[in-house]
Amino acid sequence: MKHYFTFLSVSLMAMCALAQLQFTSGKFKYEVIEGLDNAVQIIPKSNSESGAGYSNLFSSDFHSTVTYDGVTYNVVGIGANAFYRCTLNDQAILQLPEGIIFIDAGAFSYAEVGSLKMPTTLRLIAETAFANNKFGGMTVLADNPYFAHLVSTQGNVTYTMLTNKEKTKIIAAPGAKPTQFSSSGTTYLTSITIPEQITEIGDYAFYGNPTLKTVNFHAGITRIGMAAFYETQLTRVNIPNPDCEIGNSCFSNSQVGSVTLPQGMKKLGRHVFFYCVNLTSLTLPEGMEEIGMMCFSSCNLTTVNLPSTMVKLDSCALQSNPFTSINLKNVKYIGRQAFSMCSNLTSVTSNGKLEEIDGTAFTRCPLTTAYLPEGLLTIIMNAYFRCTDLNSFTVPTTVTTITGNPCVGATSLRAFNVAEGSEHFATYDGCLYATDGNTVKPNRAEGDEPAGLTALVGVPTGWLQSLLHVPEGVTVIANQAAREATSITEVELPSTMSEIRPSAFSSITGITSVTCLAVTPPIFTGETGNYFTDEVYQNATLYVPMRSLRLYMDGEVWRNFQHIEGIDTGEDPHQPGDVNHDGIIAINDASILIDYVLDNSNEICTTCADVNGDTFINIADVSALIDKVLNSM
To answer: Which listed residue, of 253, 281, 289, 518, carries a Cα 20 to 30 Å from 588's Cα?
Structure first.
C-alpha cells in the first residue's frame, strides 16, 4: 500500500501514538484517538496492496457517532489510507457526516466515487488526501468556514473543484473515472482553463489525474504547488507569469513534451520535470539563473539550450538524457551528477565562467577530454567518475582546490596533465599532486624527484606502472587517490607521510608490498575505513622503520596488515627504550636496563638506555622505561 505523510499526518500520529483500541461497527473499522475525548477515526479495513477493503458505500453508512462496548465515540476523522484504492460507489453522492474534522494523508488516494460532499465541520485536509482520485465531483457545504468548491464551465462541461474559502486556491480536483457518473451527466475533462479568480494551485491538486492532457494557466497564477500535476497526462506546459513559483515535482512523471516558460523566471526547483520521457527539446528563457536538483533528470532531451543568465545547475539537474553536446555559456557551478549517465555527451563548451565542478558531475559520460577551462577554481573528487573513454585531463592554472581523485574509473586515462604556470598542482610519473607553490617543469630530468609536492591527489585508473613511488615532501594521500589503479603492485611512501584519507588504495587487490618510511605512523582520517583491500591486508608485506615496528603493529589500520617487517632506513634504527635493538619496547628491555644499572658490567647502547633523555643512565631511566612498557600494553 502506498503511504503518504504530511505535517498533518505527523501531528495526528503524535496524538495517536498511544492508540490501542480498534473495533468494527457497521461497515467501518475505527481507531480510538488518544488525547481527544471519546474520538475515533475511520481506518482501513484491510492493509492489502490492492485496497483498504471498502466498497458499495452510501451516505447512510457514515455516522457522526458510533457506540462500542457501552462507550459512544465521536467520529472525527478519515484516517490515513482509509479508502485507498476503494470503489466506494461510482454512481452515488457520498455525504461525509457532520463532526468530521480531518481527512488524513492518502485517505481517498486512488478511490472512486460519483461525488464527495464535505461537511461544515471539516478543518484539516492532508495534501495527499485525494491523490490519484477518480471522483466525479467534490463539493463542500456552504457554511464550512475553511473550504468551498468552485463550479467552472469548461466548454459544455461543468466541473467542481475543492478550494479554500475565498475560492482563490485549488486544493483538490476530481479525477477522471473510466465511466461517467450518469446520474449527474458529468463528463470527465481532458482540458481545463484555470478560472481567473484562482491565483494558486495547491500541492497535489491534480496529482495522478489519468485523462487531463491540457491546462491553460493565466498570468495571475502566482504558485503551482508541489506535485500538483504529478503523473498526469499533461502534454504541454506554458507558464505566462515570470513570478510564478513552481513547486517541487510539479510536472514530474507526466506526459509533458513541450515546455514554455516566460522570460524573467529565475529558478526551477527540484524534480519539476523529472522523468518526463516525452520531453525531447528544451530552451530555457533569458533571466533564468538556476535549475534545481533532478529538475530535468531522466527525460529524453536531445537538445538543451541554456540562457546566458544561467549560473547554477544543481545536483542531477540534467542527469540521464541523450543529448550529445551542451553549451554552458555563463554557468558558474555544476552540481553533483548534473550530467551523470548522459550516455551520448561528447562535447562541453562555455564562455569560460565556470568556477566549480562538483563530485560525480560527469559520471559515465563518453567524454574523451575533460572540460576544464581557465577560470575554474574547484574540482570535487570523482567529477569524471567512470568516464571510461576519457584520455585527457589537464588542470588549468586557475584551479586552487581538488578534493580527491577526480577521475576514478576513467580506464583510458594514462596520465594527468597540469597547465604550465600552475602554482597549486603538478604531475610526477603521470600522477597528480598538490604543491606548496613550486611548479614541476614538464621536461625535468628522468629520475629527478620534484620539490614542493605536498599531497598525492590522483593516480590515473589507466596507469600502466606497477611501482607507485610517492616522493619525499608529500605528507597526504588524498581521498580515493589511487582507487582502482589496479596496475599497482608496490607502494613506497616517504618519511614525510603523515595522513592517508579514505579509500586511498581501495579496489586494488594485487599490491604485494607497502613501504612506509615515516617514523611516526601516518594517521588514517575520515569516516570510511576502506583504505586498502582485505586481500592487501592479508597478503602484502608492510615494511616500516625498525625503530617504529611496534608503533605500526599497534597502530590503527596499520595493524590490519598480517605481515609487518622492520627495515634499516640508514639512520639509528633504535629508539630510547629499545635496549635490545629488536624494534620493540617490551619487558625484556626493562630487564636488560635493570641489570646494567645494578652492575654496569654489560655493554649497552647509551642512546637507547637514556630513556628520559637527561644524558645519565640510572634508576630514573628504568622507571621511565617501565612506564613505556605499561602504556604500550
So the answer is: 518
162-201: per-residue pLDDT in tens? 999 999 999 999 987 654 444 555 566 788 999 999 999 9
Return d(Cα 420, Cα 579) in angstroms, integer. Answer: 52
| Residues 11/12/13/18 CA torsion (nearest 10 deg) | 120
Per-residue cell: 307: 540562457
- Under the phi-then-psi rule, with left for phi > 0, alpha for psi from -120 to 50, and beta for the rest, what region is 127? alpha
Closest CA to 223 of 189, 265, 161: 265
Cell of 243: 513570478
Cell 585527457 maps to which residue? Answer: 392
* Residue (of 115, 120, 126, 109) closest to 44 by Cα position: 109
Supply φ then ψ for residue 595, to 5 degrees.
-60, -40
Question: Chain centroid to CA 233: how far?
Answer: 29
Rounded CA-CA distance 357/9 in Å is: 39
**pTM of the predicted model, to two decimals?**
0.84
| CA-CA-CA-CA dihedral for 510, 516, 522, 526, to nearest 10 | -10
Distance CA 316, CA 361 (A): 8
The pLDDT tens digits of the residues spanning 433-474 come to 999 644 333 333 445 556 689 999 999 999 999 999 999 999
Contact 497, 518 (CB under 8 A): yes
Enclosing H/E stretch for 553? helix 549-554
Asked if 60 and 26 touch (Cβ cutoff 8 Å), the reply is no
The DSSP annotation for 393-452 comes to -EE-TT--EE-B-TTTT-TT----EE-TT-SSEEEETTEEEEESSPPPPTTPPTTPPPTT
Largest CA distance in the chain: 117
- Average pLDDT of the segment spanning 494-512: 96
CB 359 within 8 A of CB 382: yes
Spell out the residues 6+ positions from residue 513 whose beta carbon is closer than 8 angstroms to its own: 489, 490, 491, 540, 541, 542, 543
Measured distance CA(128)–CA(168) in Å, rounded: 19
